[in-house]
């Protein structure tokens, strides 16, 4: 990417090919998730409208866990293209590559460990047709564990299909979406630029940025599945406290997108949400691992995020939970962190 746009972020150049473009670009960033990528690809191929309508491509950030190219060739049988970074470039640069390589008018960034449910592309297409001026469309989504079992669903943002009301303020208060549930026009990425700055919460900042300039359509149908797994970037950063450090940065960037009269209330709301999110997430991480560093590092970052009454209230609750947990038979619970049942990165499960 070259230069910057009015938002101060790096540009995505417009797609310049003169050949006819597909409607869809399903871009699948992948890094060391080969054990899940098969499910991801099958979920897309089951809805494939054909190469003239949909580009499907895996963008591999130099994975070391498997021969990803061979896996894609076996499952895709020539239908799914493959691009490998010459070296590991990190998630933000890999997303950048995905969008730069996208040929379609509508871009779906589908992480290599997530899945979509039947009807996803049909419904998303209907929303863009019904509301042609929108910049993005989203659906309700389910949380799944490492085995693919449903854990819970996100709260619906509205009861029926339509435009999201007061969306800039609502999405600025806390992240309500996942990559897997969002489809964005390529022209919107060209206008607003790249994911940048942090590797946790970068999607939240992008959804707010989009809401600042465009409307978003939504369906309450559960058509996407976000997989929580402890080895993911999100859960690793949650467990070490780095997630709250990134979120603190994002919260203040988001202030730049808000009308002056909403800034103070949104800031207060966001701090309260993510202090609770961090502290309860660390408590859950400690329960399944016994690693007290998860608690200590998150306490430090939570205090930096908000040193007011909210922090002390949540700290007291978590401290009492730790004491209770240590004084009950639950202490003997032994859950493998590789397959544990908690979602450390789930912003909804904070109590």
From TrEMBL:
It comes from the Bacteria. One of its GO terms (molecular function) is transferase activity. Coiled coil: none annotated. Keywords: Transferase. SUPFAM superfamilies: Nucleotide-diphospho-sugar transferases. The keyword Lipid biosynthesis does not apply. This is Glycosyltransferase involved in cell wall bisynthesis. It holds the Pfam family Glycos_transf_2. Residues 25-156 form the Glycosyltransferase 2-like domain. Gene3D superfamilies: Spore Coat Polysaccharide Biosynthesis Protein SpsA, Chain A (3.90.550.10). The lineage of its organism: Bacteria, Pseudomonadati, Bacteroidota, Cytophagia, Cytophagales. It comes from Spirosoma fluviale.
